[in-house]
Amino acid sequence: MDLKTWITTKEAHSGKYSMLLHGTVGTFSFPIRQRQDYTLSFYAKSTDGSPKTLNLRYYSYENTQETQRNHYFTVKGTDWKRYEVPFNIPRSAVRFSFRAENIYLDDLQLEPGKKLRRMQEIGWDWKSGLTAGIMT
Predict the structure, then answer these.
(1) What's the rounded Cα separation, in Å, for the pair 108 and 70?
(2) pLDDT tens digit string along 33-54?
């Protein structure tokens, strides 16, 4: 699988690029504090406006039952919408994977706490690297 084919300039919530999901894509591990609340947020939209299912999974490096969760979102419409997942795991690192077909994904943000804050623009985009769209 060549993930470069998933990066597109056709749509972007911010910047010039977004990712068009065609299956499953994952991130590297992010260091976090054990048993602390965090929120991952992202923007998504359907390619044609019809409802589509997006599966977001988070898990620790061990990928044990205790540290993995699946969240399912119905993404519909052609406007960008922000989605969020609060989490708390007893490990010092977390990974994320996204599984969907024909959904644009952009502006991921990982932040401490359960309260979602305004999207922080830090000047990265999908083109500079596989996980460059991840904001921490």
Answers:
(1) 17
(2) 999 999 999 999 999 999 999 9
